[in-house]
Design a protein that fits this description.
Number of strands: 5
Largest sheet: 3 strands, antiparallel
Radius of gyration: 24 Å
Distance between the termini: 26 Å
Order of helices and strands: EEHHEHHEEHH
Strand content: 5-15%
Shape: elongated
Oligomer: single chain
Strand order of the largest sheet: 3-5-4
Length: 170
């Protein structure tokens, strides 16, 4: 963010407009950190709202766990593959899958050729739930996107991708 000083701080008789002062490197970082913290809080609240009352779908966390299974190439994955794709620990994935299995969203079964391995598949209801949740999330994303200016829309995907890469490296 740039700050300006008024023209009254200029020498008497100066006709130039306000002087633009670049923030110091420290001030720029402080602004970035404050914006980061605000974005983190907003995203957490939005996820909470989206998860509190999932209509015809899944919570955001459940969706992220199951989204990979909705791809034809990954129609059946073992639990380790599911948790890696979702970025959660194996115990977390197992707890979530227990709930989803009770609700008829997924089915677990022994892998063909290796009875030690359990694979997870979406049921028909699970595929519907993933599709409904994807649509609900895309609608929310479109709303945010449409609230940006044309220039911001052009920059948003590049900046979000770059931030994702940088955060993933932490």
């Amino acid at each position: 963010m740039k700050t300006t000083t008024s023209t009254s701080s200029r020498a008497p008789g100066s006709s130039r407009g306000p002087r633009v002062v670049e923030p110091s490197r420290s001030d720029a970082f402080d602004e970035f950190a404050a914006a980061w913290d605000q974005m983190s809080r907003v995203v957490r609240r939005a996820r909470g709202r989206a998860s509190a009352t999932p209509r015809n779908g899944l919570t955001v966390s459940q969706f992220h766990l199951l989204d990979t299974l909705s791809l034809e190439a990954h129609a059946a994955l073992n639990i380790t593959e599911v948790d890696e794709a979702a970025g959660v620990t194996c115990p977390t994935a197992t707890r979530m899958l227990n709930t989803l299995e009770r609700e008829g969203i997924v089915r677990r079964q022994r892998a063909r050729g290796d009875a030690r391995v359990v694979v997870v598949r979406l049921t028909v209801d699970g595929r519907r739930a993933v599709a409904a949740t994807r649509e609900r999330l895309r609608t929310a994303q479109r709303t945010v996107y449409e609230n940006l200016t044309a220039a911001e829309q052009r920059q948003a995907s590049v900046l979000l991708s770059r931030l994702s890469e940088a955060i993933d490296e932490l």
